[in-house]
Queue: 3 jobs
Job 1
Amino acid sequence: MKIKITTTSLILLVFLSCQNKQVPKSIKTTTIEAPEIEKWMWLHGTADTEAATLKAQFKTLAKNGLTGVLIGGDNESMFRAAKAEGLQAHIWLWTLNRGDEYIMKNHADWYSINRNGESCFDNPPYVSYYRWLCPTNKEVRSFLKDEIRKLSQKDYIDGIHLDYVRYCDVILPVALWEKYNLIQNEELPEFDYCYCETCRAAFQKESSNDPLKLADPSADTSWINFRYQQVTSLVNELAAIAHKNEKPISAAVFPTPPIAKKLVRQDWISWNLDRIFPMVYHAFYEKEISWIEDATREGVNKLEGRIPILSGIYMPDIENELVLKEAIDGALKGGATGISLFGKLTSEQWKMVKGE
């Protein structure tokens, strides 16, 4: 008598035959592990901290489950102390917002100019440290590329992290309007950059239009896209240099692609980076903590898996460890591969980060 074996009955037979028996040695079993969650932190550089203090600091961060640190400034002792404790140590750079003494003294012409003809050099918008370089300026690009080249060749620096890689905020996050006594329902000329001679000439070459003579610069697609491309091409040139020196490169960006484009002319889904750290600072946009999940997912979907996202969490707006758990869970549910923290944590919040 022939027995007809269907696909369903075959699966059932295999399942039953494995019960109470050893799996044959020829069959390999695989344990599937959940992907590791990356946990990073932005740290301001310190030039005079003692070695013992640095060791204790980074030992604590490593014990609390951090993957790596983004360190402001090129302080070799900090990088080596972090690496000694098993942390990745990337240099955190202010890219286009630069008040360096050397640049201020020697290159006033590098600074961006607004629609009113005012330069960031002597008329910084919003706050005194907002001095923005023009990304179109060839000398600016050469200076930044040389900087990345030198930094990415240093053995104690594991990677490059770009911050302020954008234009000045043409529109501030809504929660900051009251602080600066502003209503920014439209692009105001004093915050609209850059209209320097270099930008005007480059745009005229592309479009035959002078941006200063446009009826409504905020609505002109060509002028908007021109500025997206200036930052994008700069970032990708910097990334190529870092990659040539076998160093990963990342950037801190505004929380979602549409917000980044609208507020600071930042088209980060077009950047050739190894990680992206969207600053998903919910309170800046008068949003609930649940928005972190939605904002993260928006970026993840736009990138289509091309670049890992690590959601940035602003600790001054995280009231306690339960809120922090909600923020982290939201980022991961939104598709982030990890998080990055800005600001101080309580001992209970650190336990939450560690997973205790």
Job 2
Amino acid sequence: MARACKVVTTTAIVLTFIASALSLPAQTLLLADSAYSSVLQRMKTFGIMLPQGYDTARRYPVLYLLHGWGGGYKDWSSKTHLAEDVAWYDLIVVMPDGENSWYVNSAVNPRGRFEDYIASELPALVASRYAADTSKQAIAGLSMGGYGAVLLGMKYPARYSVIGSFSGALTMPRDLRVREGWNRAAKGNNGDFALPSLQEAFGKENSSAREKQSVFTALRTVTAFDSARKQHLPYVYLATGIQDPLSHIVPGNREVRDSLYAAKLRYEYHETPGKHSWDYWNEALKSFLPRMMELTGWK
């Protein structure tokens, strides 16, 4: 029998996009919470889903789910079956609003420190307001969010147990050069609406930030670790739809897979039928969640 998903507030704004009747255990909680970000210098809202029977006397593992370009904090809870998929786990899910930041500290905007916000400030805020165990964290995302998850997971490996990427745009910002070439050839009229946000995130051509914010640079850093330290790096879960129409997605994911293999890091790689779409990401998330719980042993 379908049961209502209970929506409550703390300092939160009730999310209006949740369905009124879902097949969920009772007391699944979906919130939107807001706080002033000192690193972004403005108010930011994030989505948070709390497990059934949420108990403030306990401490729960946390999964950070990052949205894609053009999205926001409501995406995962409104466009997938997230509530149903996580209902059986004692897990807090946090859904930040990363805007079109690529989850990095902007190369040109001092108020665009999204790396600091996602990796440091937001987890501290969540731990102060909710029963979150900051020693048990995972990070995952789709497209731009997949890039952000892998980059932040490898730059701050002690903070995460598992990294998940679904259709991750993993060759950014390297492929930005190609897009800029197309833009010049089309004399600025090629309709690349994402280009301004990419250049704000990574800087103009020849910016040193581009190399620093490369997934491959982060991988080279951890590749130098000895075998004992590598065993404590996050487990990397890569998934991509084989029919993805964006030409850089599948080759880029294969390139990262090969880099993980060469570095002898712990990972798994999945190519399955699917496009760059919510149909695919919904299934990818459904497959990822039980695997993440199995890998971590979180209860």
Job 3
Amino acid sequence: MQLTGILRNQYFACIFLILTACGASGAKEPEVPLGNQPSSPSAAPAARRTSSQSEPQAARSESERATASAVTRRSSVPLNYPRSQVSWLGVALGAELPQRVGVEVVQVFPNSPADFAGLQAGDILTRLGEVELHSPLQLGELVRASSPGREEPLAFERAGKVHLAQIIFEGTPDPEDRVRLALVGRPAPEIAGVVTFQGEASSLQEMEGEVVVLEFWASWCHACRALLPRLQEWDRQFVAQGVHLFGITVDRPSMGIEVARRWGMRHDLASDSVGQVSRLYYAQSIPLVVIIDRKGVVRDVMLGASEERLQELEALINGLAGEAA
């Protein structure tokens, strides 16, 4: 089956709010920010982080050393697509905080400006530049209004203390590249809490020593259905060489069983209806395919599908399948 760039574009219609987080009110706000306008790729700029004067000098020095170390550990994962000229910060935020200034960080994208500046989940962002922050949407507008390469001070609270980070904005990576920056070259997050409704596997531990082709899909995702024959072809071609195709859906098990029957799915399937595993894999959009080697390290990620990327993944799987366990 030939799959073109049209199928890659289809995945934008298959979006579920997994990376967004909920506050006590249950309201959801978007990741800050999304953006897919093309531009030229740019290298990640240096980031500096200092603490406020309310911290002792020793604490400031320790914080600065930790940030400098984090900068030296930046990913060398190359981008597959041009960056947008729309800036990004690289965080997912909770709902508005009632009766107080600030917005809460619930997730930080690895290798993002927020990550380089040392932000962490649980931080309360209170001020960007001279602007006091009151809502995730407001922060998103401020970030989008900044141009890549611009530097802004960002005040935040952590464990009751006020800190100051220096943010250097970058162009937003393509959605696939954002996931690749977060996962490639790192140990694959463990799969836990899913409900197996077809097959036996329910964790990476049970697939230890195998090459895992992990797909995130859903019953309403047309691009997922179009991709399925290619995944099944890989399953038949490589299963004897220790390659394991495993699908995770946000559908309830009862729905998953029905769709698996209707689509002719034969591989191991599990339900992640609460989104716990999907969040760990940054599966904000689907179909998302993650290739994990025999040592449990993520080797590549594909979001949507194009014939070029499918050929690259197939060559990778073929190479990994030939490696000793």
